[in-house]
Specification:
Layout (H helix, E strand, L loop, with lengths): L4 H13 L3 H8 L3 H9 L5 H10 L9
Amino acid sequence: MKLTAFGIIVKKRLIDKGMTQTELAKLLGINKQYLSKIIVGIRSGGKYKKRIIDILDIDRQDVA
């Protein structure tokens, strides 16, 4: 599946931080399948995006 622009940023930051999608999902309190759906754009993930940005220390200008 094709990643969204947000998904690409998330994947890069996970690599930078040496973190897995499973670890991020656990921190968010969601399962890894749901996180994957957010990353590829199947689900909006609106209520989780701010926390993802904070946890991964993503520059807000990159996701504006």
